[in-house]
Design goal:
eight-stranded antiparallel sheet
Amino acid sequence: MKKFIIILPLLIIIIVVAFFAMKDKNVSATDVLENVDFNAENPTVTIFSIDTDKKEIVTEIEIPEKTQQELIKAFQKAKFKKTTINATEYDYRIKMTLNAGYAMFLDSDKKSLTILSTHPDIPDKNYAIVNDNDFFSILEKATK
């Protein structure tokens, strides 16, 4: 009985610490994009700017293939954290075509994104980018 009294509080402490450690854990791009293969042939990035103050709210931005590859590599090395996002503040819609098409909305000011689900019964996923690995600086240069 004495062992149980000593072990139970220690076990509870370990579980609580593990829970909080997992809650604040940063995740990688392979965790964010479902079944992604960054080694797929002919990867591309299509970018659309979103500006509700303009007549044409959504505008496609042409970017060179080299810049597309830089964006993919930066995204692959970035770190993310789950979050909630206000859907009215996005300034880009991006589609990365790797082994599949991955669509997302980005808020470059808040460095956050929403990965759009391809399944109607699975909700979209929201993330803050905690280490963008120069993704946003590359994006900014490409969209000017």
